Amino acid sequence: MGRSNDEIRLIKDSFSDKKYDNSLTKCMKTELKEDKFKKAVLMVLDERRMDDVDQYGRRLPLDFHLVDQDVDDLRRAVKSEKGGESLMIGIVVQRSDEHLREVLKTYERAYRTNFARDALKKSGNLVGELLAHILNGVINKPVRDALLLNHALTASKRDGLRKDLLISRLVRYHWDHAHMEAIKRAYRERYRVDLQEAVREGTSGEQSKIPLSLLLSVADVLLNLLLLPRSCPPHASSPAPQLDPSSSSDEEQQQQQQLEQAESEVEVSESESTVTIPSSSSP
């Protein structure tokens, strides 16, 4: 969720499972129950998301008429006594990050309230979590992902999903080096501890339970921490890149403060709208 069409295309092309003819779309159609969440997933796989840039990497201009229309539609959706979820999904899933940032600003200026919080109140279910996950990424993706890593690290060790969540998140974040570095910085700023050390402490005594192949995949974060003797110093990470300048405006900072105030809401959506597929059909 919240990925570009190019990223979705690469994920689909990399999916491999003979049971589904190597089709991620076919897998999702088969494994997910018929509900609004399934419709959202299939919408993403259809690669219908609005682009932020053109084929030459130039930023596309915002359609402010569409922004205003989306704000009106989202307000109507959260205020409706019945329904409204499909409309919210259609807008949040298919609009670009830049467009959604402008929608969030305009919505707040018009109604003096935060749409992400309104959406969670309207849909306190998987749909609400899905919307919150995407919108929190629009506001500040490194902070969102740092929160999610911390949730996985601090969850009860008796929670069977804890280890899976941590591995899944680290593996995904690891492939984008710049984003991984931004997450490390956000984690350090928020929790006053290096992510490497947090992973070391959070997985103490559990290394033998984590598949070696996955540890090797997360080389930047785990290989130097979990496979080496504990007496070895943490791997020194390179300076994280600065966040997008667009996030440094007063309004963006205000939205970030609201995100931090709503940390509990973010952590409610710690599932990241992921779906547990039976192990027999896992790729």
UniProtKB/TrEMBL annotation:
SUPFAM superfamilies: Annexin. One of its GO terms (molecular function) is calcium-dependent phospholipid binding. Residues 234-283 are annotated as: Disordered. Residues 243-261, 271-283 have a biased composition (Low complexity). InterPro entries: Annexin_sf. GO terms for cellular component: cytoplasm; nucleus; plasma membrane; vesicle membrane. PANTHER family: ANNEXIN (PTHR10502), ANNEXIN ANXC4 (AFU_ORTHOLOGUE AFUA_3G07020) (PTHR10502:SF107). This is Annexin.
